[in-house]
Specification:
Distance between the termini: 36 Å
Shape: globular
Radius of gyration: 22 Å
Mean pLDDT: 96
Number of strands: 11
Order of helices and strands: EHEEHEEHEEHEEHEEHH
């Protein structure tokens, strides 16, 4: 990437599932010291950039990075670097987000698309990745199921619910499904398993984007398991390539076609 001054280049590196080994960190540090100005920048999509690389040194630096196993780039009309939160290890994570990121990356990263196509994976409704602002977004879900016979009315679930979806009744508690966001907090804290998960998986959001013009992604009705979500990704990319006009973004295409997203 050419810098604003036009004399220097920025090398952008994809960091798969936001995980980088200490060995590779040392290599990045060495390259930044020898070719740049001894610092790196982090991108909003969890990549690494090495700025201030002289134009005449750019190819040599890139060659060293590629030899060390780095993927250089992630720009242009293609599936961009896929972003996931740390749901794999986070106490709130409902899905193995980093494993899903690796699997999606293996199948779809850098595949050509009419315009840039961004995929984000968040492990729970805390939504650290801002799922609805990606062309395709996935969010971990755990749908609660309540058994009043096991409830001891400790109210731990009420205290844990951040959206006031649970209230106390004479017979235990009541979960308002119109408010519930399927975060799993109530399931996590229930000491008697009166609240368990009747369905786990991923909700899917289509057509989001941010920037000069933004669009909030629309949620599909179904909750998908990981294998289904990965298969769905391929179908959506095919649909996009078959129906987009020019460099039309995915969400703009959906608006133009006025498509029922649950039929895709």
């Amino acid at each position: 990437i050419t810098q604003r001054d036009k004399d220097y280049r920025v090398i952008r590196l994809k960091v798969l599932a936001a995980n980088i080994s200490s060995e590779h960190m040392a290599i990045v540090s060495d390259i930044a010291n020898r070719y740049g100005r001894s610092y790196v920048s982090l991108t909003s999509r969890m990549g690494i950039e090495i700025p201030w690389v002289p134009a005449e040194s750019f190819e040599a630096a890139v060659a060293e990075l590629k030899e060390a196993g780095f993927t250089v780039g992630s720009t242009g009309p293609s599936v961009r670097a896929i972003v996931s939160c740390k749901g794999t290890v986070c106490r709130y994570g409902l899905e193995d987000t980093q494993e899903m990121c690796r699997r999606l990356d293996e199948k779809y990263y850098a595949k050509p698309t009419p315009a840039k196509f961004k995929i984000g994976i968040t492990g729970c409704p805390n939504n650290c990745i801002k799922t609805q602002l990606n062309d395709l977004g996935f969010m971990g879900q755990s749908v609660p199921d309540y058994n009043e016979d096991l409830c001891i009315q400790c109210n731990a679930c009420i205290e844990a619910c951040k959206v006031d979806a649970i209230s106390e009744t004479d017979n235990g508690v009541e979960i308002d499904t119109s408010k519930c966001i399927n975060c799993g907090n109530c399931i996590r804290v229930c000491p008697t398993e009166a609240i368990t998960s009747k369905e786990k998986g991923l909700s899917v959001y289509l057509g989001g984007k941010f920037g000069r013009k933004y669009r909030i992604g629309e949620r599909m009705k179904k909750i998908y398991d990981m294998d289904e979500a990965i298969e769905l990704t391929g179908k959506l990319l095919d649909f996009y390539k078959e129906n987009a006009i020019g460099k039309e973004r995915f969400g703009d295409m959906l608006d133009r076609l006025n498509v029922d997203i649950d039929t895709l």
